[in-house]
Write a structure and sequence with these properties.
The structure holds 4 protein chains of 4 kinds. Chain A has 11 helices and 12 strands. By secondary structure, chain A is an alpha/beta fold. The radius of gyration of chain A is 21 Å and the shape is globular. The two termini of chain A are 38 Å apart. In chain B, α5 packs antiparallel against α6, α5 packs across α13 (258-276) and α7 packs across α13 (258-276). The longest helix of chain B is centred in the middle third of the chain and has 36 residues, at 95-130. Chain C is α/β, with parallel strands linked by helices. Chain C has a domain at 256-269 and 277-284 and 294-335. In chain C, the strands form 2 sheets. In chain C, strands 6-7-8-3-9-10-12-11 form an 8-stranded mixed β-sheet, sandwiched between helices. By secondary structure, chain D is an alpha+beta fold. In chain D, α3 crosses α5, α3 packs across α13 and α10 packs antiparallel against α13 (351-373). In chain D, strands 1-2-3 form a 3-stranded antiparallel β-sheet, with no helix packed on it. In chain D, strands 4-5 form a two-stranded antiparallel sheet. Chain D has 2 domains: 83-154, no CATH class; 165-373, Orthogonal Bundle (MetI-like fold), CATH 1.10.3720.10. The chains are: A alpha/beta, B mainly alpha, C alpha/beta, D alpha+beta. At the B-D interface, α1, α6, α7, α13 and α14 of B face α6, α7, α10, α12 and α13 of D.
Chain lengths: 338, 329, 335, 379
Amino acid sequence: MEDNAVILNIENLKIAFKMRQGNVTAVNDVSFQLRKGHVLGIVGESGCGKSVTARSLMRIEAPGKLLSGEINFQSKSLGKVGIQRLDPAGELIRELRWKEIAMVFQEPMTSFGPMHTFGNQISEVLTLHNKIGKTEAIEMAVESLRAVGMPRPEKLIKQYPHQISGGMRQRAMIAMALICHPQVLIADEPTTALDVSTESQILDLLAERQKTLGTSILYISHNLGVVANIADEVMVMYLGQIVEHAPVSDLFASPKHPYTVALLNSIPNIDKDYKNQKLEVLQGSIPDPYNHPDGCPFHPRCPKLIHGLCDMVQPRLLDVSLNCRVACHLYNASQKTS
Amino acid sequence: MKLLKYVIKRLSWGALVLLFVSFFSFLIIQLPPGDYLSSYMARLEKSGMSVDNKSMVALRHSYGLDQPFLVQYGKWFYRFIQGDMGVSFIYTEKVETIIKERLPATLMLSFSSLLVIYLIAIPVGVFAARRQYSLWDFLAAILGFIGMAVPGFLLALILMWIAYQVFGVSIGGLQSPQFMDQPMTMGKFIDLIKHLPVPIIVITMSGTAALIRTMRATLLDELGKQYVTTARAKGLAENKLIYKYPVRAAMNPIISSGGWLVPELFSGETIAAIVLGLPTIGPILYRALLGEDMYLAAGCLMILSGLTIIGLLISDIILAISDPRIRLE
Amino acid sequence: MNKAKKELLLEVKDLCMHFPVQGSFFDKVRGVVKAVDGVTFNLFKSSTFGLVGESGCGKTTTGRLIMKVMKPTGGTIIFHDNETGIMEINALSNKKMRPLRRKIQMIFQDPYSSLDPRMTIQQIVGEPLRAAGKEHMNNYKNKIAAILQKSGLSADYMDRYPHAFSGGQRQRIGIARALVTKPQLVVADEPVSALDVSVQAQILNLLKELQETLGLTYLFIAHDLSVIRYMCDTLAVMYVGKIVEMGLSEDIFNNPAHPYTEGLLSIIPRTDSKTKRCKRLTGGVADASNLPSGCYFHPRCQYAKDICKIEQPVLREIKNDHQVACHFSLKLQGI
Amino acid sequence: MKILQKIKSHSKSKKEGNKNYNPLYSASQWTLIWVKFKDHKLALVGLIILALFYIAVLFAPIITPYDPWEDSRYIYCPPTRIHLFHAGKIHRPFVYMENILTDPETFNRTFKTDYSKPYPIRFFVKGFEYHWLGFIKGNRHLFGVVDEVGIHLMGTDVLGRDCFSRNIRGLQISLTVGLIGVIITFILGCIIGGIAGYYGGIADNIVQRLMEFISSIPTIPMWMALGAIIPSDWGNLKVYFAITVILALRSWTGLSRQVRSKLLQLREEEFVVAAKVAGTSDWKIITTHLLPGFMSYLIVSLTLEIPKMILGETTLSFLGLGLRAPTVSLGVLLQDAQNLAAISAYPWLMISAIMVILSVLAFNFVGDGIRDAADPYKN
């Protein structure tokens, strides 16, 4: 498959949770593509559905129920696969998991089983997917740990997760994720729980591994600075919908959707001396998931609200320029006229 | 090795507790106003025989009942350490021979009950946790409740009643009469096995019910943790994944629950033995307490507590070995 | 925050907090963790002093020591109050400490565990008032309603419980509780790190407005350097229990004098992709139970020389109130 | 649901009903617990059973038709059946006369029902004298039969005493033993657990060692030993309190372990530090923050401790080491059911056993229901 061919094509994905007080739509009609060798960043505040979207690719979206939409994956071994049709506990999806789509989670503390050594947990993936012997799997595990810059990997193989620091554990997680050379790596806020210095080392490691192995990464985070540094293109999500999707330079240089603009302005800039200037603040808070506002979900907090339009009609995600998409009436109107 | 140091520390602590228990059990038997002789005298008078005062004093002296409490305790404890637990008034035999005679049955019953509890509770607990809120889970919960609600002696009574009504056979004791003091033959062994189910059920009922609930709750807790999602994402099959990670992690609280399970076992065994007439230490303690047979009662209490302490020690050691977080501290 | 008449409010002199590492039941104390090791700084009225550093550097412990939540193992904390005069906090008995409690208050990090879920908002916000002494009922209610209004919450939330509020609203309740007794000093321990980006900005602006209207002095503790730059006039960077650099925020951010500060500033990811991150800070935070010899930072420092491995640098002034604890800070500054 | 209505109406009047005002916003911890408790069907069933039992306990002398200790000629008489049809016609509920026939040779006694004359059951009938709650004298009974015919809903025992009255009186003793025992456990558990949890350090160590010591003696042997100490010449009341103390001596360890772990957990919460910083005194912190914090957990472990005590008392009395003959407790009643022959011939003697099981089950259901609802703020 030549470079930047589409590996993952998601169309009108809709996921809802059945809760006691009623149904909560976590992901509301999301469509995007992931290209080979690209890093796609998904940014958004808590409850915007970024993590549920990512987990649905491996059908481990927990209590959620996939309502509709397609997840077409170009798998090496199985050809074109519609993941949404696979049974979450079935044979097929287990074929794909970790062999073709792997994942790194946010909490380094609890991502590894407490009762088993690193050697056991990492080599298990190899014996399962690559059908190779235990001893050979352990050797490959040692090599993969060395590749992520682990000091003394032979010693680490016999150690238990509680014996090493959070940063080290996250490195081991990445080693485990990349050991089967998956096509897609989903990173769900891998550095949120880490210190700044450990975070930057993990980001460097991910970037370096991505280049050498050519894996495409789906990077999820609420920290815009981190995404700006690691992603090729960025998607901003709000209340389960994509509001803006653009290459990283365009998005941060000239953000279009009012929410993206407000988000960028509300982060204190480390290189700017504010004297007694104040941060531009986005008023209000994320609406209650049980009663979505009608029309555009952002309209109650949007400074550029057009009465009669924004609070009635839901904007569609339309192309505004070369692979830049925005879901906002401000741009639809201009598109029609220009 | 660190584990050895831990074992030695625990053993010394167990010995200290046993010392306290000995003082406590000896104190208990001293408390009631009279002692064995006076209650024995009262029984004799009731049946018309009278014993003159002088021989009473001689008897009291020979049993050392006239010395002050602390001296009696000191002498008793000193001899106890050397294995001489004093003489029982009721059986007029040395206490340690009575106990030695009954110890194997006690150990065999409690050990097999512990095994049965763990063998039943773990799979049922795992089964109930995995099918939460299903019919099976509900049934397990109901069984659990009833298990905890029916007192031991009542269960024994009901089982004996059913056996008596339906099969017309009395299922008390561990041995049918004809094998009573024969050497251990194949026939006797089979007969023993045939007698085992009822006492085991009575002893293990409440322990199993409680352990099922603990297992279910602990496993539900572990199933919610992040590493289960990681394992699922790695493509492991659901069954393999559940038994390898969350169930293994849930085993630690189960092993440490030996802490309240072992005393529960011995106490369940005591009551079952009294009702079913089993040849264990329970009934002797019961008769000793009723008849205020001081040395026998103290001996039984000591042995039962000793066994419990050893049981607790073993469960702690197994826990230390099984949980890497404790072992490698 | 005019710099002209700098009035001293709080003086902290080489504060130490050493936690014994408890062995098991039998063997005695195994080692000592120096969470806070000789911290000295001054707080001036109606200005914001920042304490920044990675996890385990002792910034939260310092905040808690000042609030007298625990007794330090060394050093003094002197509070300058025009009404009650100059007092050493740790020397005061509980009774003498009571009037001072009203003057120093604290804002906490986790909005979900800093409010008692079983109390109504009125009880929570009113607690410092109740502790300060008897208050007439409606006077007590008016004060609470006023401070809630100031913190951006409507007064009729008073009979609701914390579970009815979002993270941002809960943090506003925490702020209202801290300001209800009109304190002079407020210790804010990571007030925004548990919040979403948009809510974070709202709370930061609220804290700034309240400082201007009520003339508050903040001791602002955080690990996020960009938040520190936005909020603080002066700050101190801490590493494994010690202050490694202290001074005005423009001096420190424009030309950092300590290799650790310089490294931190260089690796922070920025949204404008022009300034690419450069790899200047390797290795992890030193383990507090076995610290490296000499300067704790030398294993990670690219300027490290032999002297750094032997001698521990002392905090000394290199420019007007810009202090550094490093043998080669001058060379760093290009002087 | 009436709790919710009450809140809604109360808050509606105070404030304009804005759209998303959820009445649970200003619902206190206990309302939330009640709302969650109601979802637990079994727990509600348990609550109803317990309510019935405790009403029976309160009005025991009035409900029981016969004096529990009054002998009668009807020895081992099976439970009297209540009929509605006499000679084909509907009739108000009535009973028939039971005649006692003694076989001349074997002297065993059988009962022959005389179907000729219906004896209607009357309500608030005169019966044996009683002092209700110790001071109100009265002789009215809820139901009974006037003429010398007998109405023994649960049959009679070896001395012809009415089992129904004895079971109700037994319930009175057993259920109150549980309550008083739990009060002692509560006091001991809270104080010792509280000290260990709040102050920690050496106090915590000593309490831990003490609990290890107590739990190393198996429960029933310990109770039996303590039971044996009670001198035989003590009055019923003294023995009764001695038993509750003995039962409590063992069960406070479970409670104090709960209290200690909950306190250690709550102490770390930031709102406790916030209270300390606000200047609230130690004592006030304990009463206003910590106590409500683990009160619901306390109720759970107390509710689960009562059945253990009821079982304890029943077992001890059954063995003859607990309450003794003149007092009537479920355990004492079960002593008659000790020998197999008695149970198989007169199965109604086992009804006391069902009473024990029912009360213990009810307590467990309620305890389980509260446990699920104990921390409404968890999710």
